[in-house]
Amino acid sequence: EDVQVYWNADGSLTIDYIFVFQNDSGASAMDYVDVGVPNANYDLGSVTADIGGRSLTDIQASPYVDPGVAVGLGSAIIGGGQSGTLHVHIGRVTKVLYPDDTDSKYASAVFSPTWFDSSYVHGSTNLSVTYHLPPGVGPDAPRYHLPGNWPGADAPDTFLDNEGRVAYRW
User: Fold this and answer.
1) Of all helices (H) and strands (E), which one includes residue 35?
2) Pairing state of beta strands 2-7 and 128-132?
3) First-to-final CA distance of the chain
4) Is the Cα torsion angle 86, 92, 98, 102 positive or negative in sign?
5) In sequence order, what DSSP letters do the residues of 53-109 get, joined into one string?
6) In 3D, which of 37, 39, 1, 40 has the Cα closest to residue 22?
7) Cα separations (Å) of 165 from 6, 10, 58, 140?
8) What are phi and psi of 75, to 5 degrees?
9) Among 39, 142, 148, 164, which residue's CB has the most CB atoms within a 10 Å radius?
């Protein structure tokens, strides 16, 4: 799972997910994937998806993940013993910035990638999350806070992305 999280100049959020699924041999086909979003203030019309580069059009509010979207895989279902790469783009989520709790001159954002319950998946996940800060935020301005139970490295990789944005990758 690779997640690219973009905080935009208008304060909104754009999320880009790439999931690589390996369905167990003999398992039921994967026909829908439910993806959580940070809050209910997302624009369902901004969500697009494709599997293996093939556009998917069955995108709706999830009946299982609240808030979230359900992506129907249609004829691109992932059968037992098969693998597939699903790309889900959530173009606009609002109300994702908050006053920083340690410095009122800063805004804060909290993001947790979608996850799948252990009754549906098993094994390990190779997860990468990259935060792209808004355009114009210089490399000396941002700061981050790690939660006390953070399982990753203490500090993220820090770099400028291809748009010149400050980015953090865990």
Assistant:
1) strand 32-36
2) parallel
3) 12
4) positive
5) TEEE--EEE-SSSSSEEEEE-GGG-B-TT-EEEEEEEEEEE-S-EEE-SS-TTSEEE
6) 1
7) 9, 15, 33, 12
8) -75, -5
9) 142
Taking the C-alpha atoms of residue 151 and residue 139, their distance in angstroms, rounded to an integer, is 25
Give pLDDT tens digits along the chain (170 positions).
Answer: 999 999 999 999 999 999 999 999 999 999 999 999 999 999 999 999 999 899 999 999 999 999 999 999 999 999 999 999 999 999 999 999 988 888 888 888 888 899 998 888 998 889 999 999 999 888 877 777 766 666 665 678 889 999 999 999 98
Q: pTM value?
A: 0.92
Environment class of residue 129 by beta-carbon count within 10 Å: exposed (0-12), middle (13-18) or buried (19+)?
A: middle
Between CA 130 and CA 109 the distance in angstroms is 13
